[in-house]
Amino acid sequence: MSYLTESLKIEILMMIGYGDRARTQCEVVRLFREMHPDLPPLNQGTINPDIIQSTVSKIESKFRETGDVKDLPKSGRPKITKDKKIDIVLSMEENPQ
């Protein structure tokens, strides 16, 4: 799912619709494939893969839970930026203790 751009995820949500105009996830997959026949299949590992029903389900669930389609920040130790590294080196040069 993370290979889809935000605009494609929003397009999928718009295809789902709401209320009595809502489509099934299978209908959304079919419609998306019709509208984007140029996208390569999922198994080729490219940046804009074809979608499957579970992809639509995950996008819809994420939107209902968070109100957004953006991926959440990854957990783990944050990377030190180049500016922060420079600040550390300068402070060590000024005060080597």
From TrEMBL:
It comes from the Eukaryota. This is DUF4817 domain-containing protein. It comes from Aromia moschata.
